[in-house]
Amino acid sequence: MDEIVKYIKWRVKEQIGYSDLPKSGMLILFFISYLVGVFVGNLFFMENFIELCFVLLLLSLVIGRFVVVNFKVFLLIIFGMIFGVTRLYFTNLVDSSDVSNYLGKGLLKACITEEVDVRNDKIKYTVEAFGWQKNEKNLEVSGRLLVTGDRYPVYEYGDCLLIEGEVKKPDVIEDFDYGKYLSRYKIHAVIYKAKIEKIDNENFLAKSSWTVSGLLNMIFDFKVDFETRLSRIFAEPYSGFMAGLVLGSRRGISEELTEKFNVTGLSHIVAVSGYNITMLIVVVSGMFGFLGRKNKVIASVIVIIIFVVLVGAGSSVVRAAIMGGVGLLALWFGRTYFVSISLFVAAFFMNLFNPLIMLNDVGFQLSFLATCGLVYVSPLIEKYFVKLPEIFGIRESMTMTISAQVLALPIILFNFGRLSLISPLANILVLPFIPIAMLFGFFAVLLGYFFNFGSLILGFFAYLIMNLMIAVIKIFSEVPLASVSLDWFNWWMAVGYYFVVCSWILKNIKLR
Fold first, then answer.
1. Is pLDDT at 451 greater than 50 in this prediction?
2. 75, 92, 109 — which closes off a domain?
C-alpha cells in the first residue's frame, strides 16, 4: 500500500507539480474543487447540509493524505468543495412566495421575461409572476413559470398577461425528469393549455431597466425579422437548416431531417457552440482590421454578447462565448492564452451563477466534455491519423471528432441510449462546408436589407452547399448499423469508463 501511495504522489507531483503549483494551476484546481463540491452535494440530501460538509471534509483529508503534498493546496481543495456545496444548497431554496407553492386552478398575472418560443401548433412563454387569484383571494406572488398557450395570437417579450389555467409541477415524461430540466432556468411550475389575455396597461419593460430589457427586445425583434427573411430566400427544408446553422434555431427543421442528424451524429451542426463563436471572432476581426488591438477586442466582445442573446443564450454557446471572451482579454493584456484555463473559467462562472447547469443541462455537459476532449485527448491521438490526407481538413476533422467523442461518449449513451458509428466519416465530409454555408446565408440576409437581387444570388450559392450537405447526410443515415442502440448503459459503467480514460490522459500528457 505504501508503494502505491508513493507512486501516486510521484505521478501527481511530476504531471501537475503540486509542490510548486503556478497561480494558473491553483486557479484551475479551485475551479475543479468547486465543481466536485456541486456534484457531490447533489448525491446527498441537501437537508443534511452539515453532514454533507463533514463528508467533504473527510474526502479532502483523504485527498490530502494520498495526493496533495502542499498544505495550501489542501486548504484550497477543501474550501472549493464546501463552497460548491453551499452554493448548491442556497440555489435549491425556493422562496415561500414562489408561485410553485400555490398549485391549482386560478388567474395568474405575469410578464414575459424571455424570448417567445413559437412552435408549429403552440407557443411557450417564460413568465415572471406577480399576482395570483384563487378562490376569490388575491395574492402577491413571485417566481418563473413556463406557460403553454394557443398558436395565435402571439404575445411579445415584455407583454404582461392575464393567464387562466392550472398551476402544476412539471411532469415526469417516461424516464425524463422535466422538473429538473426546467429547474436550471429557475422554473418550478408550469401551466398547460392556458387561456391568455394581454393586460393593456402594464408592460414588463416599463417595470424594469430599459437599458437591458429594451435592448433584449430589440435583439429578439431582429432575430424574428432575420428568420423571416431567411424563409423568403430559402424554401424548406433549407430555410430551417440555415436558421439552425446561423442561429441555432431548430424550430423549422423537420422531424425526418432531425432524425437523420441524430443517426449520423451531426446534431451539433445546428446547435450553436464554440465553432460559431470562433467563426464570429474571425469575421469581426477581419471587418475591424483597421482598428487597433484593444478597439478590435471591444468590437468583438460587443458582437459576441449580442450574438449570444440572439441565439437564445444556450449553455454551450455561453460557455463558448466566455472562453472566447477570456481569449480576447488575454489578447487585450498581451498575455498567452491557454484554452484549458478558459474552459474551467467558463465552467466555474456558469455554475457559480447557477450550479444546476452542470447537474441538469445535458447540453452543457456535452459541450464541456467535448471541449476537454479537444484540449487533452487530441494531442494524444493525432499521431494515429498522420496517414490521412490534409486536403479539405480531413485529418483535422477526424482528429477533432474522435477527440470530442472520447470524453462525451458516456453522457451521449446515458441520455440518448444510442451511438452513431458513422459519425466520424460523416463529420469529415460535412464539417468543411459549414463555415461556407454559414457565411453565404448570413450575408445573403444582410444584403437583403439593401439589395434584394444580390441577396438571392448569395442565397443560391448557400442553397447549393446545403443541398450537397443534406444529400450526404441522407446517404449516410441509410447505411446499415449507422446507429446502434445501447440503452443498457448505466452510471457505474460511466464511472469506470472515466476512471480508465482520465488515468490514460494523466499518464500521457502534462496538464497546464
1. yes
2. 92
